Structures are given as structure tokens and as C-alpha cells.
Amino acid sequence: MVPLRTATRFIFDQYIIVPEEKTITFEYVIEYPDHPAERFREVLTVPWVTAARWRSIPKKMLDRALQTLHVALGVSYWKMYCPPELFIKPGTWTKEQLDFWKTIYTQGMGEFYYKNQIDFRDLVHFGCATLVNQVEPVTRSQKPRCLVPIGGGKDSATTVQLLESQQISFDAFTMGSSHIQEAFVEVLNVFYKSIERQLDPLMIARSKAKEVYNGHVPVSLAYFFTGLLAAVLGDYRYVVFSNEKSANIGNVEYLGMEVNHQWSKSLACETLVRHYLATYVTPSIEIFSLLRPLHEIEIMRRFVGYGKYFSVVSSCNRNFVVSSPQPKTEQGAYWCGTCPKCTFVFALFAAFLPKEQVCELFGKNLFADEALLPLYQALLGLKGIKPFECVGLPEEVLVAFAEARMHGAWSDDVVMKWVIDQGLLEPSVIEGMKKELFAVGSLETLPELFKKCFA
Length: 455
Known about the structure:
By secondary structure, this protein is α/β, with parallel strands linked by helices.
């Protein structure tokens, strides 16, 4: 739908730190040609940072982290009306920095543009109050400690196990919290830090009322830069994410650009972010993904060997929907059993675990649900486009079916029968795929300390 209003300019106005209340407020202003300007506020609460700690952080480093986060979080407010002019008031900026943010607000919003049929090709124009030729990064000695963002799924569990296998200590981190994350952290039994995020209620109300554009934003970028802030405040050298190799492949082409639901989790985005942080913010903190060398199916193959997470882990994004209450079950983790993510992860579990155990985890047998056949066809690349979800490659789904078929127990289920009847599980083809998908890829994106996790 087209928003009820037209906006001309989006202003990243200011951010306000109140150490005694442990809060940072990011303020944004939207200007309209025929309506008074409106101010939107997003509040982050950092309960574990004392007022004294706030004041002990070098101002220049803290400001650089907050200026970056200010722009990253602003995308949720800008997308309501997509005004073409975006103006940053705080801080000093180079043309190269503004170009970086133009890329983020373009490629990172690809799915949003595609679904709303917005022509993005001359849409995003960044400006700033203070343009300079050069911005020097801030260097500061950070303790060689790790902060691991926890989503509550198999990926972060695998990262945790890889670190523990090499006696690399870490603390857990979440942006916000859900019952899934809380249960997961309890199983980890490690120190846990959270930054709570309170979105502006007016933005949420307008989104629910469908008075503005709605759609996907590059949420992993919010995690990247919130993790950066947590590392600055908590004195960490590394922020270790769990984004995998499979995230690099897009869904569809739109107006000459590949649209990738997982672009903000991709290697391309991670590379841009790492360069930006080292060049303009600080080289003293490294943000990277430990699972970048692995495909989704190899992550699952490793994950099922850990066992202890089965009752708390969930990859279903229904657990994190902001606009509705978090779902809960009487026992175990929540899986909706109807979304692309659930159908994909069910297939991966079926490849490596007994049928009875997989069905118990999900509360139902997804391979026996004929209504899910079109979703599996899409996941296999045989119908429509790759679903706009954090799912793996069609080859991974095919190999998962081949592995599950070997167990024998799934043969009478409608989805498995369809896959078999289509002749998709030809052994020589599957073996070639397995060789690629179960391999450990390049370790070049990992800091030296972490390469031993794959030795």
C-alpha cells in the first residue's frame, strides 16, 4: 500500500544519554510538505552499565559508536514514508561514509522495495551537517574477551560449542529478550548481557494500522551495531556472530539488483561493515561470524551432536515478532509449524535425528502435512522463488531429504513420497552436493585466534 502521507526529509536529529537511567534515546524527525514535522524516539536501556562506567568511556569512542547505531536503527522509521532526503545532524562524516549508508539503505532494504514495488534506483540521498575529508578511527585497548549474540537457534548454539571446544571464554548478549533467548542462556550458564530496545509506539501503531509502508528491514545490522555498543561499554575485543555461508545467496532480481532476504547476514554485508568499523569507528573491536565457513546443513549436522539444547532451541521467527505477543508452549520451544523457517529446519532435523524425536520437538510431523508441500517445493527451488526467510539453499533441502530417506521411517509421509516420486534423490547427484555442503570453507574472514575452532 502507499502511505497516507508524503514525506520530504528524514532527519537523524540527536541522541541523548542519561547515565542515571541507563538509557540512550535516539531521536528522528520526519518532515512533510503539507503537515507539521513529527519526532520519533527509540530508547535503548543498558541495565548492566553503571553511571560511573558510562562516564569512564572515552567520549570520542562512545560518540562514534552511537552515531553509527543512530543511523542503523533509523531505517525502521525512515521506511514508513521513504523520503528521498536523509540528513544526519550529529557528528562529522565523509562522503565515503555516506556512500556506505546509501548502500545499507538500498541493498539492505531490497526485499522491502520488492514487496512494496518501490523504485529504489534514485531514492536514497544522504547528507550531513558536517562533511569532512577524513574521519580517523578511535583506538583503545580492549580486553581480549568475546561477546556472543544469542538468538536462541541452532546457529548460536553451534558457535558456543565451537568456542567451548577450544576453551575460548565468552559472555552472552541479546538485543531485547524473548523466552527462547532466556531459556537458552540459562542452559549456557554463562554471564549474560542484554540491551533492551523500545520502539516508538506511534511508529508501531501506524504500522499496525497500515497507514505507512511495512516490510522487512536489515535487522542483523541493528544487531551488529548494538553489539558494537555493548563491546564498547563492556570492554570486549570480539563480537562473535553466527551467520553462515548459505546466507550469501539471494531470492530474486528486482530492477537490476539481487534481492536477498538475508543480505545483512551475508559475507558481502559483513565485509562492508568490518571495513567501515575499522576505518571510521574503531579497529580495536572486531565483529565477525564464526560460522561463515559452514552451510546450514553442516551446522545442523554438528548441532545435533550437542543434545542439551533440543528442549530450548527454536529458529521460528514467530518468537520475535514485535507487533504481537510472544507465543509459548506448555513444554519445550515454540515452532509454528507452518512458516518457511520451520519447514526448512524440520527437514534438516529429519536428516540427522530419529523421526519420533523430530516430531516431538515440533509437536507435529511436517512431512505428513500436505498443505506444506508448496512450501517444500519452493525450498527445493521447484516452484516460485526462494522464500523470504532465513533458509538455506535448495541443494541443502534436497540433501536433507536424501539423508532422511535413508532412515526409512519417513517414506509414507506425503511430502517425502512426492520428493521420491519426482526422482529428485539420484544418488550420484546427492553425493556431489554432500561433498560441497558438508565441507568447511575458507577461514580467511576469521581472526587468527578463532581459526583453531575448525582445526
